[in-house]
What does this fold into?
Amino acid sequence: MGNRFRELGLHPGEHFEYDPQRGCKFWNPMTCYNAPSFLNKLVKEMPASTVPAIILEVRPFLGATSIGLANALSYAERNGFILSVDTFRGDEGVVGVLQRPERYSPSGGATETDIMYFEYLSNVANTIVSPGGYQPSWIPHAFRGEHSTKSVINATKQIVPFPLLTTKAKSTAHWLGRRGWRPILAYINAPRVGVGDYKLDLEHTWRVLGCGGAMAGDGYRIPEVKSALREFSLKRKLLTEPFFLRAAGTRYEQTWEWQDSEEFETRMSSVPNANFTTWVIRNKVCKQVADDDPLPESQLTFVPTEYTLKDSI
It folds into this structure.
């Protein structure tokens, strides 16, 4: 993925945003997520019978996609939440319309161990989903106008950060699994560094994904992402659907099915300022016997007090 980075930062008062008229080109690339239509479509296609609808997001970086998914849940009027899983360590991420690695440079001298987590929490807590308060530059027609009856939601209420390195992480995951709470949609952000962890992300995410669910992500144009997905799909005999989004996030957006041909590469190169690519694997088919062995009781003895709810809930 290369070692070239630009130092980027969020300034006071800035929000993660997209512009339907101009796209991300005219925004701070750290505050712009590029495929709201893709996220909205993923959420709308989730089975209606799944309540609450759990969306698993892997490696969210600074929260742009988390907020985009929260918007999509709100627009679809679905009861659910986004579980955003990450180590929240480091300062690198793949962002912007060109999907290239960038480095977040904070003010105040934050250390590497807390930089991402606290910035992520701040971004999510200060973002409003749907009209009212801070208002996005684009919202679906049903949410427009002074007489809209749609509710205003703080993104904090729909996004649950899950720091993997906390002492409670393992027991919390077991608690969710024992109650059959599996995501019906999983979104994997493009890898920050290397591809080894990304291959593990694909495997582990697929295992916990609920039956009939979909797994998706961005960055298919990145060679390491493409090769990892092809290896994963071949191993499990799955169909990966990759797409190129021209003018992603604008009213001029076009979706092109990915083709491995010189003609397609030439076509993509004709729009050098818009290289946003996505992928999706749909409709997970579950076996009669679960892929995972039952968890031994010895691993379930410690459960955080905030998760000791009655079994009937």
Summary: The domain at 16-307 is CATH 3.40.50.150 (Rossmann fold). The longest helix spans residues 223-236.
